[in-house]
Amino acid sequence: MSGYNVAPLQRLIEQFERLPGIGSKTAQRLAYFVLNLPEDRARDFSEAITDAHKKIRRCEICCNFSDKERCPVCSSPTRDKSTICVVETPRDAVAIEGTGEYKGTYHVLHGVISPLNGIGPDQLCIKQLLSRLNNDEVHEVIMATNPTVEGEATAMYISRLLKPLGIKITRLAYGIPVGGDLEYADDVTLARALEGRSEL
Predict the structure, then answer these.
(1) Are strands 57-58 and 65-66 parallel, antiparallel or unpaired?
(2) Phi/psi at 67 (nearest 5 deg)?
(3) DSSP of 135-155
(4) Which CATH code is given to the segment(s) 7-55?
(5) Interaxial angle between packed helices 7-17 and 24-35, expressed in degrees from 0 to 180 and rounded to the nearest 10
(6) How far is residue 78's CA from residue 76's CA, in Å, rounded to a whole number?
(7) What CATH number is given for 77-195 in this structure?
(8) Where is 122: in which H helix or E strand?
(9) Identical fold at 7-55 and 77-195?
(10) For the chain, which residues make up each domain, given as ranges?
């Protein structure tokens, strides 16, 4: 925006550019969209961001986002407390919850071990997970980190910590998506599909 620089508008564009996956053109479109909102809707938008920052915290048990000390899953009497599904982000928990198939609880790590990005085990919510396993209530921990190098390394690191506790540790099965063609699948996906095969 050299040549015609309105400082508050430029600052708004720069804030949108900081969002993941937003380039300069999209940031400009979003900024102009917000600028053209009626004042009450712009205020609602601004207040929603501020409100979320003030009121959302981490659940004291599973570290997922919550507006109370305990999230709805951890405070529910109907959830199976003997199973914990370990995920990288709150979005991953939402995705699994959306299937309607899982009835256990979650544990959100808020990242993965990534030495290149300076993220070690201490920066993740691993200690909180270990503290949940001090009683005999938990029988299975499902490692549902993403099938990336960092996700696999994190799953292996945590499973090594949990093995001595005698808790069953499982990994999500990864493989060929429904409607996918074998010839287009990469080697790692095919190998995962073979490992995770089930009886018909």
Answers:
(1) antiparallel
(2) -100, 5
(3) SS---EEEE---SSHHHHHHH
(4) 1.10.8.420
(5) 130
(6) 5
(7) 3.40.1360.10
(8) none
(9) no
(10) 7-55, 77-195
